């Protein structure tokens, strides 16, 4: 049997989506929030002389400028540059206190040495024996230096563990319960593990007094140094605005602080007069880039607006009813209604916000899964509603006899929400609600 190889030519047409660089950038632009979009456009304007950026300065708190270049060149008129950088690190704060409060002695030098080993949480990460060995100081001198360090602000700084941190804060608080410091010092383990009967018996006090001490300790900071890392001045610029009048819902694109781009026609005309092939190709390329960017930004705004309108249409009860109920809704439902891909909806809602008369909400927050109720109709309720019911049950329980997870599941079943004990435990953890043993109080 002879092997024969037959060669032939066939024409086959296949439709596929090529992920070009421009398509990738379009997808990325849709994912950008307002701040990221502005940074992207500013970067593009530095590369393309035909792009001019304008921002609605009447609403925006951005620097007043007619172009992106002005915001970089005219630094004196940029009022944001006139705001001093007042942020101080924990290390700098401690060093300043040492120089202001203590005289220039050998002991102060030891305190400055210890400051170098204080971490961002305010804890001393150096063993005193090791410090003695490295500095040549005596154990008493090093202990004195540690005492001086622990007298600095914030209260609790220089502690070597959580117990010492809480004791330092309690010691400097005149409003602390009488026995709080002693309980922390002598019976810390029992307090952590909520063995309150043992504490009450040891110190001959009532359980209500132990409860008072525990409540007070919860007001203390386990990381006193973290206050120097708090972020301030974070603002949200909503992409959409919802207006409700006479039961009519109107969603509009929010132009406040949004960048717009304009074509530098004058510059383009001047460059066209230059008889140089490379220059002509350059301005042609930059013009096409501007047109693409203008179209992509407009498309981004239209997509976010369409998705926002569909969300409002499906979640009307949230915007008109005082309890703000959410209906079960997933990305697929919105994508099918708008005939776009689920990933497009996901990018359009992440980091995008809608402004209402009662607050600003991220579009992503309106998506929630559902649970089938236990009634005959098989109605679907959102997990958000179930969580709210769970919170209400815990809020109204007897704190001396808090509900177990199984009891909560039974109570929810009575309200026609059939979920398991494990699901209750899962939702409780998500809501930050402790277990029943840790919710028990002795007031």
UniProtKB/TrEMBL annotation:
A Pfam family per the record: Sigma54_AID
Keyword Iron-sulfur attributed: no
Residue intervals of the RNA polymerase sigma factor 54 DNA-binding domain: 280-441
Gene Ontology BP annotations: DNA-templated transcription initiation
InterPro entries in the cross-refs: RNA_pol_sigma_54, RNA_pol_sigma_54_core-bd, RNA_pol_sigma_54_DNA-bd, RpoN_core-bd_sf
Keywords: DNA-binding, DNA-directed RNA polymerase, Nucleotidyltransferase, Sigma factor, Transcription, Transcription regulation, Transferase
Record-level Gene Ontology MF annotations: DNA binding; DNA-binding transcription activator activity; nucleotidyltransferase activity; sigma factor activity
Positions of the RNA polymerase sigma factor 54 core-binding domain: 82-267
Cellular-component GO terms for this entry: DNA-directed RNA polymerase complex
Gene3D superfamilies per UniProt: Homeodomain-like, RNA polymerase sigma-54 factor, core-binding domain
Family under the similarity heading: Belongs to the sigma-54 factor family.
PANTHER family to which the protein is assigned, alphabetical: RNA POLYMERASE SIGMA-54 FACTOR (PTHR32248)
Stated name of the protein: RNA polymerase sigma-54 factor
């Amino acid at each position: 049997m002879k092997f024969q190889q037959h060669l032939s030519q066939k024409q086959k047409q296949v439709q596929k989506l090529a992920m070009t660089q421009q398509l990738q950038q379009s997808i990325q632009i849709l994912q950008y929030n307002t701040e990221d979009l502005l940074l992207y456009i500013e970067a593009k304007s530095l590369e393309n002389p035909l792009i001019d950026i304008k921002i609605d300065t009447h609403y925006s708190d951005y620097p007043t400028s007619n172009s992106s270049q002005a915001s970089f060149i005219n630094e004196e008129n940029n009022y944001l540059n006139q705001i001093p950088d007042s942020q101080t690190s924990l290390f700098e704060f401690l060093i300043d206190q040492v120089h202001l409060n203590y005289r220039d002695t050998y002991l102060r030098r030891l305190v400055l040495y210890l400051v170098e080993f204080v971490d961002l949480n305010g804890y001393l990460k150096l063993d005193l024996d090791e410090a003695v060995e490295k500095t040549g100081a005596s154990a008493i001198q090093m202990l004195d230096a540690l005492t001086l360090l622990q007298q600095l602000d914030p209260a609790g700084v220089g502690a070597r563990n959580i117990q010492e941190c809480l004791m330092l804060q309690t010691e400097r608080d005149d409003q602390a319960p009488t026995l709080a410091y002693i309980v922390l010092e002598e019976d810390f383990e029992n307090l952590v593990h909520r063995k309150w009967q043992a504490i009450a018996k040891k110190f001959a006090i009532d359980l209500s007094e132990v409860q008072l001490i525990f409540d007070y300790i919860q007001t203390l900071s386990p990381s006193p140094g973290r206050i120097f890392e708090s972020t301030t001045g974070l603002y949200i610029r909503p992409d959409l605005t919802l207006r409700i009048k006479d039961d009519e819902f109107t969603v509009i694109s929010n132009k406040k602080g949004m960048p717009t781009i304009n074509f530098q026609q004058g510059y383009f005309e001047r460059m066209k007069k230059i008889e140089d092939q490379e220059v002509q190709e350059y301005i042609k390329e930059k013009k096409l880039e501007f047109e693409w960017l203008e179209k992509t930004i407009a498309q981004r705004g239209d997509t976010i607006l369409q998705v926002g309108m569909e969300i409002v249409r499906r979640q009307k009860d949230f915007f008109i009813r005082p309890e703000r109920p959410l209906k079960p809704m997933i990305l697929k439902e919105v994508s099918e209604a708008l005939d776009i891909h689920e990933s497009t909806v996901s990018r359009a809602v992440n980091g995008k916000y809608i402004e209402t008369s009662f607050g600003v909400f991220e579009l992503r927050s309106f998506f929630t899964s559902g649970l089938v109720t236990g009634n005959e109709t098989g109605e679907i309720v959102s997990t958000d509603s179930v969580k709210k019911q769970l919170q209400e049950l815990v809020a109204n329980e007897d704190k001396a006899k808090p509900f177990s997870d199984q009891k909560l599941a039974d109570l929810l079943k009575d309200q026609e929400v059939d979920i398991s004990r494990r699901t209750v435990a899962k939702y409780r953890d998500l809501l930050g609600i402790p277990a029943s043993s840790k919710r028990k109080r002795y007031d």
